[in-house]
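Readers outside the structure-tokenisation community will struggle with the description of the input data as it stands. Showing the layout once, in full, would remove most of the difficulty. For illustration, here is how one protein appears when written out as sequence plus structure tokens:
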Amino acid sequence: MKNSKDITTNKKEMSFSLAVLCMLLLAAIFIGGFGIYKINTQVVFLLAVVAAAIVGVINGFSLIEIDKFFLDGCKNVVMAAMILMSVGAVIGSWIVSGIVPTIIYYGLSILTPASFLLAGFFICCILSFFTGSSYSAISTLGVAFMGIGIGLNINPGITAGMIVSGSVFGDKLSPFSDSTNLAAAVSDANVFDHVRSMLYTTIPAMLISAVLYFIISMRYSASSLDLSIITGIKDALTANFNITPILLIIPAFTIFLAIKKVPPVTALISSALLGTLAAFVFQSGFYNFKTIVSAMGTGFSINTDIAEINKLLSRGGMLGMMGATALAFLAVGLGEILQKIGVLNVVLSKLNKVVRSKPAVVISTLFVSLIVTILCASQYIAIILTGQLMKNSFKEYKISRTVLSRTLEDGGTIFAYLVPWSTTGVFITGVLGVEVFAYAPYAFFCILCPIIAAVYAITGFAQFKENYDNEEKGEVEAPVAAN
């Protein structure tokens, strides 16, 4: 039939000028929406989706195609949405069951202001390494650490920054982590060679972060602590919950499930159900059937004389994560549209062509990772797209693929924790109750990794060479200057 032409026949290659115009339009929407008018984040991203769609239509794509691009992006975030809702159910059930209050209670009894940040950082490092998941560490011990930090009168932004830094350590370095394996796969690198390469940036960043948390802790001496605050919090917890160490079995079991690589949603829902069961066993004297069961869906609410406790424990539930879920769909859908209509490929390919030195290859990879994370809101897209765009440059300058994989993590994985509208940033804000801009200055590990990577690129340290003509694809030479 003459009228049954393929709907894509009118689309053209995206011109550089139109791609730049699209980027400027999105920048104006983000700056105006977030910075000037303080518009709701979901609305800002909805406007950005409309703007990207208009650019796609101008370039010859049909609305049917653009709608498909958006829905394809949404499909990629379905699992993340399920995890977000499952985490909401866990938080609600763990609060009403007394699990979170118990961890806070004993944490306030054991930890001191001078030891809390450093101890919490290393605990999160260890937990995230063995589970391979920053989300597991943040949504379990992270929530409890926020309560302990409040009790110790420590700035919530500092506490959240410490939790994020420690949790990212494992998500970045653990061979069990999905981002670790993804970066290695995109770069065609052996995952264990990739991990060894990451040690060059990860270990220094971890050690420097530990020193900084220790220095900050010196500001919070025990002598300056108002013990009446801790006493008040502990009294409020015992007045509203049955505090018992038996409840700690459930978090331990959840960690066990994560280590055993039980699917995240299965592990989280199991933990939520166990939390609900524990609430009936230990908290039935405080709360009725409806309150306990509803905590998984609508969250938990408490009213004590301590405002901080009310804010920390009045949360959770699947409905409480709906805002974060909606933003995840909008942000990733926007990224898919920008990728499919050609905006990202045109702009980033142009950047790739101006790379003229080995240091510039690595630094450009970090920069591209940041741009993709800002526009696509996903660390996975940042790792995949940046790896595809920069792979040829690494080959051209004979820089090892393990340096590429390491840089994809130093940028693509890390930046997701510092961008407020990324799916990771949205998750952290929803779980810890602290905005990204509030904790980012104290997420030292996240700040240091890309900086160290850039310094290595400039100095030539740990810029391994690789002969891509060699049939032994995984061969990596000793560190040499990349000049």
